[in-house]
Amino acid sequence: MRRSGVRNFSFNIDKGLGTFLPAPGKPLDLVSIQGAVKKAGFPLLGAEATVRGSLRKVQDPLGKPALALAANETGQLFYLNAGSTPAEQEALNRISSWADKKAELSVHGKIHSPAGTHVGLSVLRFDVLNQGG
């Protein structure tokens, strides 16, 4: 799974839960992870992650203003979005208030990769680790 940006992967068959650690300096490639899980004989119905990093105002791959979390260990950008529920929209609204403060956050959400190499994270919940300046 090295090409997928994963350095360690374990799977709990009883719970149907896989856990992985990102490889430093390598972007997470959700398509490769899906392929590896499928090759092992399991479908990947969804993926969630908790990412620690710094909140940044950026442009998304289409050039539109966006919020992203730059992962502490890898520097990879996770583009934040609201997902499909009112609770997810509220979580993203609350996170956006921290964008100008250079805060460090821990964000948990659903992973998706609409553009292949660009990883999106639909925010489910977050914690402020450092309020920045």
Could you write a compact summary of the structure shown?
With about 130 residues, this protein is of the alpha+beta class. It has helices spanning about 30-40, 85-95; strands at about 5-10, 15-20, 50-60, 65-70, 75-80, 105-110, 120-130. It is about 15% helix and about 45% strand.
Describe the structure.
The chain has 133 residues and is an alpha+beta fold. The chain folds into 2 domains: 38 residues, no CATH class; 83 residues, OB fold (Dihydrolipoamide Acetyltransferase, E2P). 16% of the residues lie in helices and 44% in strands. The protein is built from 2 helices and 7 strands. The strands form 2 sheets. It has a 5-stranded mixed β-barrel with strand order 3-4-5-7-6. Strand 1 and strand 2 form a beta hairpin. The longest helix has 11 residues. The protein is globular and about 45 Å long. The N and C termini lie far apart (38 Å).
Give the quaternary arrangement of the chains: single chain
Highest CATH level, the class of the largest domain:
Mainly Beta
The second-level CATH architecture of the largest domain is: Beta Barrel
Q: Tell me, what's the shape?
A: globular
Number of domains: 2
Strand order within the widest sheet? 3-4-5-7-6
The secondary structure category is: alpha+beta
Low-confidence stretches: none
Could you give the distance between the termini?
A: 38 Å
Report on the biggest sheet.
5 strands, mixed, barrel
- How many individual helices? 2
**Named CATH topology of the largest domain:** OB fold (Dihydrolipoamide Acetyltransferase, E2P)
* Overall pLDDT score: 79
User: Hey, roughly how much beta strand do the residues contain?
Assistant: 35-45%
How many E-type strands?
7
Share in helix: 10-25%
Radius of gyration based on Cα positions:
15 Å
Q: CATH superfamily membership of the largest domain, which one?
A: Nucleic acid-binding proteins
Order of helices and strands: EEHEEEHEE
